Fold:
Amino acid sequence: MSKPIEDVIVIGGGIIGLASAHFMQQAGLKVRVIDQGEIGKGCSHGNCGLICPSHVPPLPRPGVLLKSFFAMLNPKGAFSIKPRLDPRLWGWLFSFASHCNSNNMRIAGKGREALLMFSREFYASFIEEESIDCDWEQLGCLFVYGSEKTLDAYDPVDKLLREEYGIPAQKLTGQELEQMEPAFRPGVASGAWYYKQDAHMRADKLITGWKKLLQNRGVEFIEHCEFKQFVATGSSAQGIMVQRNGADQPEQLRADAIVLSTGAWTPLLNRELGCRIPIQPGKGYSITMPRPEICPRYPMILEDEKVAITPMQSGYRLGSTMEFAGYDRSINPDRLNILRTGSEKYLREPYCEPIEETWYGWRPMTPNGLPIISHAPRFSNVVIAAGHNMIGLMTAPATGRHVAELVTGTKTCIDASPYLIR
Structure:
């Protein structure tokens, strides 16, 4: 008879790690969270904070290949690939291309919907009940288009979301958009799709508040602690070897189960896990500053420019772009300029000084648009939760609940099959 799970280590202190710790602590487990840096300073930190059930369709979908190709030819475009000889990247791109079809879009959409819907409702109640100060607002989100052609091209997606997922949108003309949001420059936008049920927050403040809540409930956080390897006997991991900052020697941390929420870093552990994790780091950028004098009321995505704009109660953030540059830690000023020029086209006051932070994060991109939430093939008591693409913040609560169910061996609330390692 196997020993009951009592003690769990979470490797990775981003939003997925925090959510997993939350639900496992609620299940009565002792939880420790380790991170090689500071908790929440990775891909979650500079996120634009959109909580959008409307993001059901995955990135790989019909028509996206041609759009991506032309975007790559534009040096000022939001999508770019740094030329290099990297077999993993080109294998990933080939797999991505094979998933750009209607069948995959529907399969991935169902898997994403289950995570998005629960998480949206969880955040609304959790933030209010726990008094988490994170600039939470439920105003909806605008998908803004600069031409009638691209605005109307969204019609089939709207039909899909409305009929298959019950997610309706309101189609706005350019004039209606300007009446709704006076921050737009007159006559520039051709219109928008408005998703009233969407919400937004400040991601870094959510992480700060959630971490404090978990600490008060007994969860232990160990920062500047680098994972080295699993300590295993047969198909079970008894713990992990770690190297703490400033320590001369690695040390062993024992646990009954281990959760790996290491985002874009996860493929670097393929040998340890005994499988191939199909994740590529898709580098996104953001710029954070005070609210401009003429500040938008609604968060929005400038779809033709692929720029997200989030007006927060405590600040203002421009974000997005997608750069496949490997694990490059540099900040490319040209990518930041794409955010500025994209917002300049539409807004009367697109940004202001002083700039509080320029930031990048590696989104963990999978070729099918679905995260991996699954037991590791090599270890029966190791759960992987990674590959959330651009919806990690949006889907963290549902992921955390699913992780806790896998760790404790209880029946999962959602179908587990979409998130298995393939």
